[in-house]
Write a structure and sequence with these properties.
GO terms for molecular function: transmembrane transporter activity. It is a multi-pass membrane protein. The protein has one domain: Growth Hormone, Chain: A (Up-down Bundle). By secondary structure, the protein is mainly α. The chain contains 20 helices and no strands.
Length: 457
């Protein structure tokens, strides 16, 4: 009965509104997040860590970038808990408000020269708050689309993910414009603050749009059928621990590759003498193509399945990690742009796009916000630590070769292939029904625990 009620309460107009809200909210959230990533690579070593050598300052700056990713699983647990208990909509409004205010506050921080250690300490604290907020954003926004849909779930859920490169594109364009108008010296001196301060304007628009979306019908149906529910994080860890572990592994290669494309490539390019504008232009073009790559591959996953695309994407990520660095090292703007477009606009979305539909199909409604957010955000740590890891590897070796970095990406890609193979196909799963629990995989068919539970998920 709950399943029928949840299906009958869904409507196409509200689905479109939910997808639009998820997309716009994700654009705003990731605009804030990627403004920080670019500034961490280009500016913060001179603003907040000017007392350190350039190499150490860059490493410290990228480390503050990583703290946001480390805080995201906490956000997934906290926002997921209340999202599973009180509803998706409330948490989405709160997460957007929090990250918007945090981003604006970064634009008002004193530098190291102005306040000493107070500046970098406040930067780290605000970055943690920002990370917690965005940790609760993706799962809720994705579920609002997925749980309002009756078919083509991967397509509708992908608008949340498509907001990430859009936000990145907007942030790159804003930073590029400010750089072009002011010049590098003025940008480092004070111009970097402007993109952060602009967040308050985007926040107002986002809150208005998000407030107009109705609560998830799947959540309302689940609340009606089980009014007394367990603590979501406990339910996820006890009921579907293997699924959660594999969910992390599936997304890890995409996020490690994302950290390479969007953050470390910027720092590495500048380090070897490429102009900042050249790298930012390549990042902007690749972000534009990524929007359509995410939506297109996600729609295809509704037809052929999530698993084939994730496997193909992981293989290509492993291959392209060996190709991208030589393309960057040519210092040719066109070649760099082509490398970034293929990497971020074509290959990365093959995994990243279908993740939204996949994660919505892995967990029961009663703890889906928590489970999906936790799996996604733990995997997302890869995007935060990979730039730091790559910088550390390059700083501890006398050889300028980037082969060790490519090997790391290839190994993680192999992990993703193993995990999606064990999870099995999920595209036909019913979100309204309960999982009977995880069982051991069949040795004859290779059907994994998640695939077994997925028939009634």
């Amino acid at each position: 009965m709950a399943s029928a009620n949840s299906t009958s309460s869904k409507s196409t107009p509200m689905l479109k509104r939910a997808a639009a809200s998820a997309y716009l909210g994700s654009v705003i959230e990731y605009y804030d997040f990627f403004v920080y990533s670019v500034c961490a690579a280009l500016v913060f070593k001179d603003v907040f860590f000017s007392n350190l050598s350039p190499a150490v300052g860059t490493l410290a700056s990228l480390a503050t970038f990583a703290t946001g990713y480390l805080a995201r699983p906490l956000g997934g647990v906290v926002f997921g808990h209340f999202g599973d208990k009180l509803g998706r909509k409330r948490m989405l409004v709160l997460s957007m408000f929090t990250i918007g205010i945090a981003s604006t506050a970064i634009g008002l921080l004193p530098t190291y020269e102005q306040a000493g250690l107070i500046g970098p300490v406040l930067l780290i604290l605000i970055r943690v708050v920002q990370g917690v907020a965005i940790g609760g954003e993706w799962g809720g926004a994705m579920l609002m689309s997925a749980e309002h849909s009756t078919k083509n779930r991967g397509f509708w859920a992908s608008f949340t993910s498509a907001g990430a490169p859009t936000g990145q594109l907007v942030s790159a364009l804003v930073i590029a414009a400010v750089l072009a108008i002011m010049g590098p010296e003025a940008f480092i001196a004070w111009g970097w603050r402007l993109p952060f301060l602009a967040s308050i304007l985007l926040l107002v628009v986002g809150i208005i749009v998000r407030s107009a979306v109705a609560e998830s019908p799947e959540f309302l149906a689940a609340k009606a059928r089980t009014p007394t529910r367990r603590i979501p994080i406990i339910a996820a860890l006890r009921g579907q621990p293997v699924t959660l572990l594999f969910a992390v592994g599936v997304g890890l290669s995409a996020f490690m590759f994302q950290g390479l494309l969007t953050t470390y490539s910027v720092a590495y390019g500048v380090q070897i003498g490429i102009e900042q504008q050249t790298i930012l232009n390549a990042l902007s073009f690749s972000s534009f193509f990524a929007i359509f790559g995410i939506i297109g591959w996600s729609r295809l996953s509704d037809t052929i399945g999530r698993r084939p695309l994730v496997v193909a994407g992981a293989v290509l990520i492993a291959v392209w990690s060996f190709v991208l660095f030589p393309m960057i090292e040519t210092k040719d703007g066109l070649i760099i742009t082509i490398g970034m477009i293929i990497g971020q606009g074509v290959i990365h979305p093959m995994i990243y796009g279908p993740l939204a539909g996949l994660y919505s199909e892995l967990f029961d409604t009663e703890h889906r916000y928590t489970g999906a957010s936790l799996g996604y955000q733990i995997a997302g740590i890869g995007a935060g630590i990979s730039p730091v890891l790559f910088a550390a590897i390059m700083s501890t070796t006398d050889s300028p070769s980037t082969i060790p970095l490519s090997i790391v990406i290839a190994v993680v890609a192999a992990i993703s292939i193993l995990c999606i193979w064990r999870l099995g196909e999920t595209k036909s799963r019913n979100l309204s029904e309960q999982s009977p629990g995880e069982t051991q995989p069949s040795t004859e068919t290779g059907t994994p625990p998640a695939a077994t539970e997925g028939q009634s998920l």
